[in-house]
Amino acid sequence: MTKTTFSIFINGFKPGKLVIFIFIIAISFISFDAEAQRFPKPEFESGYEQIETQIPVPRSNFMEYFDVFVLFIALGIITWIVLRKRSRTGVFWVSVFSVLYFGFFREGCVCSVGSLQNVTLALFNPGYKIPITVLLFFILPLLFTLLFGRTFCAGVCPLGAIQDFFVIKPLKLKNWVQKLLGLIPYFYLGLAVLYAATNTDFIICRYDPFVSIFRLNGEFSMFLLGGLFLSASIVIARPYCRFFCPYGVLLNWMSRISLFHMTITPTKCVQCKLCEGSCPFDAIDIPDTEKPKESKQTTKRRFIALVVLIPLITLTGAWSGYLIHEKLAIVNSKVELAIELIYLDKHPEITDDPSYTESFEVEAFRTSGQSKEQLFEEAKLVISKFRIGSILFGGFIGLVFGITLAGLSVYRYKNDYEPNKGECLSCARCMDYCPVDDESKLIEKVK
Amino acid sequence: MKEEGTNNEITRRKFLTNALRASAGIAVGGLAVYVAGNSNTKDLVWQLDPAKCIQCGQCVTNCVVTPSAVKCVHVFDMCGYCDLCGGYFRADAKELTTAAENQLCPTGAIERKFVEDPFFEYTITEDLCIGCGKCVAGCGAFGNGSLQLQVRHDLCKNCNQCNIALTCPADAFERVPVDSVSIFKGFSDIEFVNKS
Predict the structure, then answer these.
(1) CA angle, B89 as apex, B86 and B91 as ends, to 5°?
(2) Reported confidence tier of residue A37, pLDDT bands at 50, 70, 90
(3) What's the rounded mean pLDDT across residues B83-112?
(4) What is the C-alpha to C-alpha distance for residues A46 and A20, in angstroms, rounded to an integer?
(5) How distant is the Cα of A372 from the closest Cα of chain B, in angstroms?
(6) CB B104 within 8 A of CB B129
(7) Omega into B67 within 30° of 0, i.e. cis?
(8) Which of A20, B109, B135, B196 has the least C-beta neighbours within 10 A?
(9) What is the pLDDT of residues A339-390, one digit of tens each?
(10) Which residues does chain A have within 8 Å of residue B194's beta carbon, measured at their own beta carbons?
(11) What is the DSSP string of A190-207?
(12) B40 touches chain A (CB under 8 A)
């Protein structure tokens, strides 16, 4: 039977023969009734031994746990270097290690910055079982920052470390430029959470500018983006960390209330101003002991204005979020497909055109056997999720605007040169500028 | 708007900071515990489901690595060892020889070897395969469907967000636990050799 089937096949696939071909297939199904396959596996007489299908195994699970261990150790070491040893050289070498290990060896994934999307996805989609290692990558730097400040940013995060090597001639940015650009990470964080929660996309990973450099492989545009960020870092120190990193927002919050934090001076600030220009990230707060003289009236008015404005901006943000929620939802593949199908239904002349070729999405949907109604229901559900998400996203952005505004007008009494706990990346550059000696170390030296 | 740095104010601020820090710690810890309740001790890797795949050919260009980590895998247990292989020959092939003009594979990655009359063995040279799925479509249309696209995990970088998964029109990519990395269509009880 098989031989006859094949002898006909040898003549090739001419359209006329196809009918016979299908016919013979049908017959062979009947004769090999139990077989589900068109051509059952032959029984070889020549003693041929079948090759086994090879399945390469992924990176071992053990290595993922080892990475978490390395992260923990690296965080511990850099915290000790920054807070105790107060050594910029030490931070530099940890940065080198992080770029080599977390960057080039581990090839970037999963990183703490991206893991915030996995955590969000796990929060909102019970179907996604987050690997415990990814969760630890998210949690460990947050806890360390809550205790010791952003030492993770100093040199454990490979994205920050690679930019740090390019900080050569940092320019001082105007305060308003910094404040304005500093709002971008909140947008990025909000969008990333929105898209991760709706299981649409992981935008942080998609637009990670350095991962193609770490992999030495990737799209040209991503290499270009990475190159741009690195060359920008020469004059605008660590642009990604300061003006884009969404994880940095969370670390900023944690660091503001951290239990310990690095200090510029080991003991007591002598107001020598030597460290003033040392921070490439403009994260040193200059002493401000003179409270600006304002009348009670002005401050009262401002207070009332803020109390009214902040909820107003938040509500405006939420409203704008509601207005754009459908636009944001278009990115979702289900919504996109539903829109395409509805459009095609409304315009039958498109599909009637003989030159029409359906898109891969439509083809895949047609062959999947799913009904349109089912897809539309799913798309509707996604859009309703986006409605809530966009309102929250807009409200969040509004609140951030409002609080930033309030922050600009609040007077903070500052006696000494101190790192701004939120913005400071604990890189330890400023410490070298401080002329004050650590007395305890001096005593050790003398001994 | 705040009073000058009297002792009283400092203690108040200190108290507030402490309270805030404690609540932040509890929040982070609570989040960790809550999410850990829905966690997995195994890492997840990407794999494509051949049952959903429509062989659109986008795996070739959409993977972040070049050539793509998606390769054609030959499930020999399903192969009919056909002489006229729908995965090997073009539909308009003049004769059934290994001549390049007869081959469907754009890179010549499929090797055809005579076994015994009328059976031929087909093996895939993975270094040459670009994951276009042309042979998969051919084998699926005319044969048993023993050629299937799969993510090869020695090549896959396991991006947190798979770039192909995002653009796959059939939504065929999914995350699978690290210890069961292959999905095959029409055949489940195959014992495979793990190549490390």
Answers:
(1) 75
(2) confident
(3) 90
(4) 30
(5) 15
(6) no
(7) yes
(8) B196
(9) 999 999 999 888 888 888 888 999 889 888 889 999 999 999 999 999 999 9
(10) 55-57
(11) HHHHHHHHTTS--HHHHT
(12) yes
Q: Tell me the two tokens of residue A204.
A: 């942080």
A-facing residues of B in 54-93 (CB < 8 A) are: 54, 56, 58, 64-66, 73-84, 91-93
ω into B65 cis (within 30 of 0): no
Contacts of B64 (CB under 8 A, 6+ apart): A211, A212, A215, A217, A218, A219, B157, B159, B163
Closest-approach residue (CA) in chain B for A1: B118
Q: For residues A403-422, give the mean pLDDT.
A: 86
- Indicate yes or no: CB of B43 within 8 angstroms of CB of A131: yes
- Find the closest chain A residue to B6 by CA distance: A413
| pLDDT category of residue A1 using cuts at 50, 70 and 90 | very low
Closest CA to A187 of A95, A327, A83, A317: A317
The DSSP letter of residue B122 is: E
Q: Would you say B53 and B149 are in contact if contact means Cβ atoms under 8 Å apart?
A: yes
In this complex, which of B2, B24, B160 lies closest to A146 when CB atoms are compared? B24
User: At residue B80, what is the residue type?
Assistant: G
Whether the pLDDT of residue A282 is over 60: the answer is yes
User: Other C-beta atoms within 10 Å of A305: how many?
Assistant: 13
